[in-house]
């Protein structure tokens, strides 16, 4: 699996500047991991992890998502996180920080 951050190093640099987290791991990549409606690996891969960036890179070259500092422990329940935020890194291919 080609590392997403090797293809888009500006995304990693931006996320690092926002959080100052020392390392990253890709926990789920819809290009390679199961993403079907009733059998997705998404929750299994992110369960009990903290400091999560959910990054969406769509077919129109938009890159956006959200950050959660608190771990996700259950499905279909709200999470309280005073440090969470949404972000947009690229809008229709235009990089903006």
Can you tell me about this structure?
It is built from three helices and four strands, in the order αααββββ. The chain is of the alpha+beta class and 97 residues long. It has a four-stranded antiparallel β-sheet with strand order 1-2-3-4, with helices on one face. Strand 3 and strand 4 form a beta hairpin. The chain is globular and about 35 Å long. The model has no long low-confidence stretch (mean pLDDT 83).
The tally of strands reads: 4
In order across it, which strands form the biggest sheet? 1-2-3-4
Helices and strands, in N-to-C order?
Answer: HHHEEEE
Which residue ranges are poorly predicted, with pLDDT under 50 across at least 5 consecutive positions?
none
Query: How many helices does DSSP assign?
Result: 3
Apparent shape: globular
Q: Quick one: biggest sheet?
A: 4 strands, antiparallel
- Rg over C-alpha atoms, rounded to the nearest angstrom: 14 Å
What is the mean predicted local confidence, pLDDT? 83
Given helix and strand content, the structural type is alpha+beta
Strand content: 15-25%
Helix content: 10-25%
Query: How far apart are the termini?
Result: 27 Å
Features:
alpha+beta; 21% helix; 3 helices
Summarize the structure in short:
By secondary structure, the protein is of the alpha+beta class. It has helices spanning 4-7, 9-19, 42-46; strands at residues 52-57, 63-68, 85-91, 94-95.
Q: What are the SSEs and their pairings?
A:
Layout: H1 4-7, H2 9-19, H3 42-46, E1 52-57, E2 63-68, E3 85-91, E4 94-95
Antiparallel strand pairs: 1-2, 2-3, 3-4
